[in-house]
């Protein structure tokens, strides 16, 4: 159960900062933690991503001071007006990027960044399938892939979401709710070849179609399970499909190193500041409306990023 509670703000210890939060990002990892798919001790403060201004600095925190604009991702307990955050997790937010935008892009932007640079290095000519392309990560993946010279075949549910994806410059948009054989439709768009990489954050509902859409030695990147976890499957399917590759990456393993985190965040914020990465906020909710925000997210009827604000 989600409920708003009044608690005294903690003081930052060594290596920590106290931040007054301006906005909190709403993400599926919050749902996974709440339902126990990613177990954490209960009760807990919801939220893993936010942005705000530093109002307190603990000992042994070089380079950060009161008033600094910061954002972070993958820090449980972020859904509070004042929250203590490990200094090694926060990244500076340039003045050219509004804090609300930083809260909307940090977790999903870092995710799209590593998925298109490390998990599969997109290059000119790469053909990529992006599921749920109207969602938060999906929109960022589409834009980053296109900026690198790749071709996107996108899926979305319904005419409105498909039109939204088309406005991002994608010519190949498939309404998955209107086709009987999604993989056949994708293969038809590639002349029967299949895609080089499939980015799938949906999970159960799209996993089979993702595998069947790949070219020989193609890669399925399963980075989420919005429709539920993928059931166990016969590993020989990777062989039968043409020596396919499957990976299940997570953001946390790509930002543990401080240098790596700073480089990824700087890349994302630079793209936002330059106007090459558009961030759409699909809804704003107060903390008191958090349950409604997560119901909207879990319904898969949203587009863009949802945010929570203290008031």
Could you describe the 3D structure shown?
With 311 residues, this protein is α/β, with parallel strands linked by helices. The chain has two domains: 16-107 and 255-309, Alpha-Beta Complex (Quinone Oxidoreductase, Chain A, domain 1); 123-248, 3-Layer(aba) Sandwich (Rossmann fold), CATH 3.40.50. The chain is 30% helix and 24% strand. The chain has helices at residues 28-35, 99-119, 136-147, 159-166, 182-189, 207-212, 236-240, 258-274, 290-298; strands spanning 16-25, 49-57, 69-73, 82-86, 91-92, 127-130, 151-156, 172-175, 195-200, 214-222, 245-247, 281-286, 305-309. The strands form two sheets. Strands 1, 2, 3, 4, 5, 12 and 13 form a seven-stranded mixed beta sheet that branches. Strand 7, helix 4 and strand 8 (172-175) form a beta-alpha-beta unit. Helix 2 (99-119) crosses helix 3 (136-147) and helix 2 crosses helix 8 (258-274). 46% of the residues are buried. The model has no long low-confidence stretch (mean pLDDT 95).
């Amino acid at each position: 159960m989600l409920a708003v509670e009044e608690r005294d703000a903690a003081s930052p210890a060594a290596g920590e900062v106290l931040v007054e939060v301006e906005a909190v990002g709403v993400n599926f990892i919050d749902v996974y933690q709440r339902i126990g798919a990613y177990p954490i001790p209960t009760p807990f403060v919801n939220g893993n991503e936010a942005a705000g201004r530093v109002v307190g600095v603990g000992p042994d925190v070089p380079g950060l001071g009161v008033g600094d604009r910061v954002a972070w991702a993958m820090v449980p307990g972020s859904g509070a007006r004042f929250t203590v955050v490990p200094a090694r997790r926060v990244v500076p937010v340039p003045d050219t990027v509004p804090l609300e935008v930083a809260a909307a892009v940090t977790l999903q932007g870092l995710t799209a960044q590593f998925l298109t640079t490390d998990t599969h290095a997109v290059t000119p000519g790469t053909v990529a399938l992006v599921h749920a392309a109207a969602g938060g990560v999906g929109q960022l993946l589409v834009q980053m892939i296109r900026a690198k010279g790749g071709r996107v075949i996108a899926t979305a549910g319904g005419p409105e979401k498909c039109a939204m994806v088309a406005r991002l410059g994608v010519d190949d948009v498939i309404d998955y709710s209107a086709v009987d054989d999604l993989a056949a439709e994708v293969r038809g768009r590639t002349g029967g070849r299949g895609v080089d990489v499939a980015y799938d954050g949906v999970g159960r509902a799209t996993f089979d179609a993702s595998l069947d859409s790949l070219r020989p030695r193609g890669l399925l990147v399963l980075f989420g399970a919005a429709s539920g976890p993928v059931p166990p499957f016969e590993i020989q399917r990777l062989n039968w499909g043409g020596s396919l590759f499957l990976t299940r990456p997570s953001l946390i393993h790509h930002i543990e190193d401080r240098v790596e985190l700073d480089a990824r965040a700087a890349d994302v914020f630079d793209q936002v500041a330059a106007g090459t990465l558009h961030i759409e906020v699909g809804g704003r909710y107060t903390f008191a409306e958090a349950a409604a925000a997560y119901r909207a997210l879990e319904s898969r009827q949203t587009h863009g990023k949802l945010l929570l604000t203290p008031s």
